[in-house]
Design goal:
The chain has about 325 residues and is an alpha/beta fold. It has 10 helices and 12 strands. It folds into 2 domains: about 15-100 and about 165-320, Rossmann fold (3-Layer(aba) Sandwich), CATH 3.40.50.850; about 110-165, no CATH class. Helix content is about 30%, strand content about 15%. The strands form 4 sheets. It has a 6-stranded parallel sheet, with helices on both faces. Helix 3 runs parallel beside helix 6 (about 180-195) and helix 8 runs parallel beside helix 9 (about 285-295). The longest helix is centred in the first third of the chain and has 14 residues, at about 25-35. It starts with about 25 loop residues before the first helix and ends with a helix.
Length: about 325
């Protein structure tokens, strides 16, 4: 693995929450100069291949004032950017997942009504009993049966029950975009290492949530996703992003189920992810911590972004 690098001067940690246009032309020139200055080789030449899996680092979750803001996410993003810059010469590829939604999806208020035709407020939990008793039903009569099947399948599968989320990650909207500073870091890596960033949209099926980047909550889970095979080909996979309790946890759980042999090569950046907490509504801190304990019991490594890679346990330490 390459040595740690300084954080380049263009990065301003105080602007993590700023939404701004990236000057790609200037940044590309800066990245090329940075690569020459520090002797960075193309990622294709890496002897130890490390992938960063960045889950849903989008404004909708990470920027204060946006729809489904996760407390702690701005600091998570700052630490993630610093991790990318310091380990620019070691990260072979960055895979970016993007939660991607439209208005009429099963977990948005417009999909559901009560007997008086009113839509549910955000963070309403819709149980099997609620649907069977008619407390909540599909606004479109043609989607009532899919709603019944969905809430029943969630419970049968041990999933979170249906939650009415605020409209979020709306395709084409500014909330769907990556946090500007994170986008900047990923673009800088792509140019400096001559390595294409891989983008993985998820969540377009209107009749299921899609917390995991690999499979939907309900639906066809039998087909092996190409992303699982792709990640299995790395010597190490480092996971960060939002939210620890939902999309990060479900992605890691699916990855370990689909590719259990990856566990000792899986690194979870505990200081670059936070759980969903909404005062007075929901608090998933306990569920998030329990998930990370399960992953550690399976052999994954829970690490911090500030630790040098050669001090991480497992195969990365052995590789140096």
């Amino acid at each position: 693995m390459a040595r740690e690098l300084p954080v380049p001067p263009h990065f301003d940690p105080d602007r993590i929450a700023d939404i701004r246009r990236i000057d790609y032309e200037r940044l590309a020139q800066d990245a090329a100069r940075w690569a020459r200055r520090h002797g960075l080789a193309p990622a294709a030449d890496d002897r130890v291949r490390i992938c960063l899996l960045a889950v849903d680092c989008q404004n909708t979750f990470c920027t204060p004032g946006f729809e489904l803001f996760v407390p702690g996410a701005p600091d998570d993003c700052r630490r993630l950017c610093e991790f990318v810059y310091r380990n620019l010469g070691s990260l072979t590829e960055i895979v970016v997942t993007l939660d991607t939604h439209q208005a009429l999806q099963i977990f948005h208020a417009a999909f559901l009504v009560d007997p008086a035709g009113r839509h549910p407020p955000p963070y309403t939990v819709v149980t099997v009993e609620d649907v069977l008793a008619g407390r909540w039903r599909a606004a479109s009569t043609g989607e009532q049966e899919p709603l019944v099947r969905y809430v029943q399948a969630l419970r049968a599968g041990g999933k979170y029950e249906l939650t009415v989320w605020p409209y979020h990650a709306m395709l084409g909207g500014i909330g769907h975009a990556l946090v500007s500073a994170v986008e900047e870091a990923f673009f800088f890596h792509a140019v400096a290492r001559t390595a294409r960033t891989r983008f993985e949209p998820k969540g377009s099926d209107p009749l299921t949530e899609h917390y995991s980047a690999l499979r939907p909550e309900v639906g066809d889970r039998s087909t092996r996703p190409a992303l699982a095979d792709h990640l299995a080909g790395f010597d190490a996979v480092v996971v960060a992003g939002q939210a620890k309790s939902h999309c990060v946890a479900w992605t890691v759980a699916d990855l370990l189920e689909l590719e259990p042999a990856l566990a000792p090569r899986l690194y979870l950046l505990e200081d670059c992810t936070s759980p969903v907490v909404v005062a007075g509504s929901v608090d998933y801190r306990d569920e998030a911590d329990a998930a990370f304990r399960r992953f550690a019991d399976c052999g994954a490594h829970v690490v911090r972004s500030s630790q040098p890679l050669d001090r991480w346990p497992g195969p990365l330490a052995a590789a140096t």
